[in-house]
Amino acid sequence: MRTDYSFDLATRHRVATRHMWQGVDGHVYVGLGYKLPEAQHAECLPWVTTAGAPAEEDEVKAAWTKIAHVKFPAGRPPKARHTGQAKLTRVRLTDAGLQQTFEAQFSAALADCRRASRFGTAFDSFPGGASLALLDLTMFGPGISTDLAMAADMRDWKQCARILSIPGESFRQAELQRLFTLAAEKPPLPDHVIPRYFGAPEGA
Questions:
Q1: Domain that holds residue 154
Q2: How far apart are CA 19 and CA 17, in angstroms?
Q3: For the chain, which ranges sit under pLDDT 70?
């Protein structure tokens, strides 16, 4: 499964953020929810300043430190915490950085799906639409429920579409249900055809 298909799907239902922000768990994040546990994790990524110049290592470290120590009023909604932090720093992740962080998330999710006892190596034989939907659920939540896993084990993709539920994210739920429905076609659509259903460019 190509990561550009998954990136296109992911950015249809969330914003790939270039500035660092502090999550509700107190950790620093960037991109599509890529965690930066320490300043050195941020320093390893390519950044530019808001003026467009390459960011120096000390600028990146200072930005991480500032976000890591932000104190928010109790009860402030997560969305406001996220979007309101752009003005706090002057470094922004580059396009290459966004892709790098997403590929790291994708690789971790793929390893989790392959490692899961309920799928194992069988995951690699799933139709592209189904594996893409399962990876998205693993990367961005709410995870793969027991009922969904059982239906996937049986290759019952129509049942996967029926039982999938993502509270509060109706658009994303519909997108993933559509992928499961496409996977149920006989024969399943080949991977290179999937992007045309989501507006992504096709290619080898």
A1: 116-197
A2: 6
A3: 1-5, 74-82, 117, 120-121, 187-204
